[in-house]
Amino acid sequence: MNPDLIVFFVLALVAVGTAVGMVLSRNAVYSALFLIMNFSTVAVFYLILGAPFIAMAQITVYAGAIMVLFLFVIMLLGAEHLSRSPLFDWQKPLAVVMGIILMAEAGYALFVRDHIPGIVHNISPEHASPQAIGMTLFNDYFLPFQITAVLLLAAMIGAIVITKKEKKGSRG
Amino acid sequence: MVPVSYYVALSAVLFTIGVVGVLTRRNAIIIFMSIELMLNSANLLFVAFSRILFDLGGQIFVFFVMTVAAAEVAVGLALIVIVFRTKKSINIDEVSSLKG
Asked: How far apart are CA B28 and CA A57, in angstroms?
């Protein structure tokens, strides 16, 4: 067993374990922390796959900005715990069964019907350097890049307008 | 020298955990986090195949997915805050009615 496989399996174990912990944990703060751990592990996968720019973006955008926003909202609302609702008791086992069916279907479609070729070999670090990413992003994908800027502006304005407190009497 | 099918399998497992999280949990914020987990598993697949095919397009696409996820989280969490303000709860079983 070569060291690459050992590293892969250890990281995969951490990723799956933290994902399961995120879903199972009763406290929403713990869930968020598990998810940060998961995102960091996936960032290490990106580094192994030769995508340093994406790995760093994953750490700063996902594990940094987005999860801090999540934690902030959880603590703002004080919504760490939820009382269990008696409604839909049959839903949980059904969801787990359907999840297993989904995974079996994915496995069938990916591994039985279509054979996936290819082994991840080591390549030169210049392949996906930030410079190369920038050249591709600003040459081939310039219009999508600008549209994302508009999207972020729209999301920002939307979030501000939605959460703005309404003045009393302005609405019937 | 890891076969790319291992990454595909890992991504499928993470995606399924996200789906089960969405279906079983009743806390709106945790449902949101499960959606992020699913997006993340798709991103992992993008990067793995970008590496196999020697094509940077996959990594650019991951970049765009991250931006869309950030926008989605900003608006979605704003909606959750508003729902909490009107209903005093983020249990999605209690916000089944459309009218506040």
From this structure: 26
- Respond yes or no on whether ipTM tops 0.85: yes
Residues A128-162: tens digit of each pLDDT: 788 888 898 899 999 999 999 999 999 999 999 98
Is the pLDDT assigned to residue B73 strictly greater than 50? yes
Min Cα separation B3/chain A (Å): 4
Q: Virtual CA dihedral for A17, A22, A26, A32, nearest 10 degrees?
A: 130
Query: Cβ of A137 and B63 within 8 Å?
Result: yes
- Report the distance separating Cα A98 and Cα B6, nearest Å: 23
In this prediction the pTM is 0.88
Whether residue B93 is predicted with pLDDT greater than 60 in this model: the reply is yes
Asked if A130 reaches chain B (Cβ–Cβ under 8 Å), the answer is no
pLDDT at position A112, please? 77
Q: Which residue has the higher pLDDT, A146 or A163?
A: A146
B96 in helix, strand or coil?
coil
**What residue ranges define each of the domains in chain B, with the CATH number in brackets?**
4-87 (1.10.287.3510)
Contact residues, chain A, for B40 at CB < 8 Å? 38-39, 42, 62
Core vs surface per residue A54-73: b (16+ CB within 10 A) or e:
bbebbbebbbeebbebbbeb
The pLDDT, as a whole number, for residue B33 is: 93
Taking contacts as CB-CB distances below 8 angstroms, the residues of chain A near B37 are 19, 22, 35, 38
Tokens at residue A13, please? 């174990």
Q: Which two tokens stand for residue A105?
A: 């279907």
> Closest residue of B to A91, CA-based?
B24
d(CA B94, CA A85): 9
